Amino acid sequence: MTYNLIRYGVKDAGIAENRALVAKVFEALDETQPQSVRYLVLELENGEFVHLVGYDRDSSALTELDAFKVFGANHADRRSTPLARSPAKIIGNYRMLAKADEAVPA
Known about the structure:
Antibiotic biosynthesis monooxygenase; globular; four-stranded antiparallel β-sheet; alpha+beta
């Protein structure tokens, strides 16, 4: 599985919208339940959002969702900082991310 960490700041006026659009992406993931994608989004106190995306082969099971396209449509207008994307490796994982043969913890 390939992982990427994506981090960016959001303007104060766009935080609620960004949060709502992220929630719609998770609703779409719950509906479609792609097995090739893992996705975690954190909102920090300073208006930054951190996304951890894991995928097998390609990320299209996430990026082709209509809700994700809506999320990305005006993303640059909501941001207060540039998008920073970094490949990442999971070094340790205690019950945060499910392993390939486990259900995601509730």
